[in-house]
Amino acid sequence: MVRLGDMAAAVQAGDLAPVLRDPYAQLLASGSVAAHSAAAPTTPMITPAELARAADGQLLVRRPEPGLGVDALVGARRLPDGRVVVVGSSLATVNAAARRVLTGLAVTGPALVLVLTLAVRRLVDAALGPVAALTAEALALTTTEPDRRLPEPPGTDEIATLARTLNGMLDRIDAAHQRERAFLDDAAHELRTPVAVLRAELELGLTSADPEAARQALRGAVSEADRLSRLAADLLVLARARAGTLELDRRPTDVTAVVREAAGRFARLRPIAVEVSGEELVAEVDGARLEQIVTNLVGNAVQAGAQLVRLRVEQSVTGLTLTVDDDGPGFAPDLTPFVFDRFSRGASARTRDEPGGTGLGLAIVAAVARAHGGHAEASNDSALGGARLRVVLG
C-alpha cells in the first residue's frame, strides 16, 4: 500500500502529523497505541499474533474492523526502531463499484454478445460470399461451355487469388482439351486417307480383268497397309509416352554402331550421303528406341530434300548427345518452335510420294528422349546450311 509506505517514512523521520491526520491510522510502540487518528480506536487494531507477523515485514489482512465495516483491509509495517505503523481502509466503496460493474455486465452482457455475434456473422458472410459464388459457378460448369470461367472478385486477397488460380487451371485444361481434340482430328484425317486408298486398291484388284493391273493394285494395297501399320505404331508410342507408360529396355549398348547401322540404311536405299562421326560409346539406352530416333531424324532430312546428312555422337555433361545436320532448306521460321509437336509438318511433307510423312516422326523423337530423361532441340544452325536437330538422352 502506497499510503502505508508514505506514512512509515514520515514517522521514521520524526513526523507524526500524517498519523494524526489520516482517516484511520495508529502508531504502536511496545504493543500499545502511541498515536492515532481521530477515527481510529485507542486500542491496537492488530492482534499480538498479527503484530508478531508484522515484525517480520509488512502485513496486509482483510477482515471485519469496527469503524470500517464488515469488509476492511488492515495493513501494518514495522519501523527500524521497533515501532509499528497501522492503517485501515473500508472496502465498501470498492465492493459497491464491483457490484455495479457486475450488474451492468449482467444486464448489457447478453446484448453485447448478441451484437458482436451478429457483427461477426455479417463479416463472415461478407468474406465467404465470394466463396459461395465460386462454388455455385463451379457446380454449373460443364464441358459444353469450355470458355466459361469462375467469377473473379476484385482485389488481391486470398479469395481473389484463388479465383484467378482456378481460372488459370481451367485455361490449361481447356488448352489440353483443344490439343487432344486436334490430335484426334489429325489422326482421323491421317487414317482416313490410307484406308480410302487401300479400299480403292483392293476394289481395283478385285474388279480388274488384267492380272498385271490386279497385281499392281495389290502391291499398292500392301504399301498402304504398311503405311497404316506405321501410323498405328507411331500413335501407340505417342499415347504410351503421354500416359507415362512407354517402356524402355535400357542396357549397355554400342551407341555408335547402332547409329551407324541405322543411318547407313538410308545411304543404301536413297540417293543421300550419310556421315557418322564421334567417339565409340557404350551407354545404358534402349537400342531399339535409339535406332528409331536415328531413323526418324535422317528420314526427316530426306523428306526435306537434303543430299548430305552428318550425325555426330558424343558424351556430354548432360548425357549422350546425338547431333544431326543436313544441307536441306531448314525449317520454316514459323514452324521451328513446333517441329516436335504431333502432326507438325511443312507443306512439302504432306505429299504421299514421300514415305512416312505423317508428322509424327519428330514427335516420337522428343517423346523417346523424354522417356530417357533427356530432351530434343531444333534450329537452323547447321554448318551445312540446313537444319540441326540435337537429341540428349539422360
Distance between the termini: 82 Å
CATH topology of the largest domain: Heat Shock Protein 90
Q: Which word captures the global form?
A: elongated
Rg, rounded, reads 49 Å
CATH homology-level superfamily of the largest domain: Histidine kinase-like ATPase, C-terminal domain
Largest sheet: 5 strands, antiparallel
Average pLDDT: 82
Range of strand content:
15-25%
- The CATH first-level class of the largest domain comes to Alpha Beta
- Uncertain ranges: 347-356
How much helical structure, as a percent, in the residues? 40-55%
Strand segment tally: 12
What structural class do you assign from the helix and strand content?
alpha+beta
Can you walk through the features of this model?
This protein has 394 residues and is α+β, with helices and mostly antiparallel strands. The protein has 3 domains: 2-90, Beta-Lactamase, CATH 3.30.450; 158-243, Orthogonal Bundle (Helix Hairpins), CATH 1.10.287; 250-393, Histidine kinase-like ATPase, C-terminal domain (Heat Shock Protein 90, 2-Layer Sandwich), CATH 3.30.565. Helices cover 51% and strands 20% of the residues. The protein is built from 9 helices and 12 strands. The strands form 3 sheets. A 5-stranded antiparallel beta sheet has the order 2-1-5-4-3, sandwiched between helices. Helix 6 packs parallel to helix 9 and helix 7 (255-269) runs parallel beside helix 8. Residues 347-356 have low confidence and may be disordered.
